[in-house]
Design goal:
The structure is a single chain. The protein is 34% helix and 22% strand. The chain has 319 residues and is an alpha+beta fold. The protein has an eight-stranded mixed beta sheet. A four-stranded antiparallel beta sheet has the order 7-8-9-10, covered by helices on one side. 53% of the residues are buried. Bound molecules: aspartic acid. Residues 178-180, 198, 200-201, 210-212, 218, 231-234 line the site of aspartic acid.
Amino acid sequence: MIVLASRNGRIGLQAAMQAMTNGGSAVDAVEAGTRVVERNPEDPTVGLGGLPNILGEVRLDAAIMDGRSLRGGAVGSVRRHVHAITLARHLMERGPHVFVVGDGAERLAAEVGLSEEEPLTERAAAAWRRRLLERFPDLDLDRLAQRDDLLRLVDDLQLSMAGWEEMKREAGPGSTTHGTVNFLAQDGDGNVASAVSTSGWAWGYPGRLGDSPVLGCGSYADSRWGAAASTGTGEVVLRMSTARSILLYLKTGMKLDAAVREAMADLRALDDPLVEHIAVIALDRGGEHVGYAYRPDERYVYMTDAMSRPAEAQMPAPG
Ligand code: ASP
C-alpha cells in the first residue's frame, strides 16, 4: 500500500495510510488525506484559509476518482464549504452526474447533509484587501463590502480582460497565487484512486475554473495502469489533458518515468510561460512513483505501509 501527495499533503499522509490499514480502500485514503489539508487554515491554496477570487469569495474545486470502477466525481466553484473533496465523493457515489458547479454544487452539499462553513479566514480576507490596495491605492475599501459594488469594481478597475496579462505574469514560478493538493493511493487490493482539492487561482476572474476539478486534466485514476495528478496553473493542463495522457502513455507500454516526461513535453510544446509552474506526480500499478516539476526545488511526499513516517522525493525538471 502506498500514498503519495504534493508537498503540502504531508500533514495528511498518515491519515490516508491509516484509512487503508483500517481496511479502507484507496478512495478512502485519498479522501481522508485531502480532508486534513482542507482543514488546515495555514494552507492558502486549499479549503479553509484558501485565498479568494477577485470578488473576495473563496470558491473551492475538487475531484476524486476510483480507479477500480472508473467512477469519478467533481465539483467546482463551491462556496460556504471546506470539504469540497467529500462533496465530490458524494457525487461520485450517488451520481448520475459527474461534474456539478456553483449553486448546484452548494445545493447538492445541503442535500447530502454537509454542514455549511465559511472557508474565508480573516487572514485570507486581509490578504485580499492588501492585494487590492497594493494595486489600487486610492480604493475606498468600504465599497468592497457589497457584492454588487465588487462586480462593478471588476469593470472599473479593469480587472477583467485588460488585467489578464498581469495575472499571467503573477502566475509564473515563485507565484503565491497558486496551489493545490494532490493525493494518489494504491490499496492492498492493487486498486488506485486520485483526489485533488484547491481554492484555485487567487484573485482570479469570477467563474474561472482550472484543471483541478476536471477529470483527465488535473487528475485521473485507472487501476489497470495507475494514477496521476498535477499542481500549478491549470490553464495549460486543461489544454493537454495531462493526467489522462499519462495513463494513455502507460497503456501503450511506456514506463512510468517516460510516460510522465512525455506528457510534460506535450505541455512544454504549448510554448506558454505558465508551463513553468506545473508539477506532476504519478503512480503505476506496480506501486512505482515519480514526480517531475518545471518549477524549481519542488518535492512530493509519500508513505508506504512499511514506513512509520512520510518521506520526501525530489521533483526534477523533466528535461
Ligand atoms: N491547479 C490549480 C488551478 O489551476 C491551482 C494550482 O495548483 O496552482 O486552479
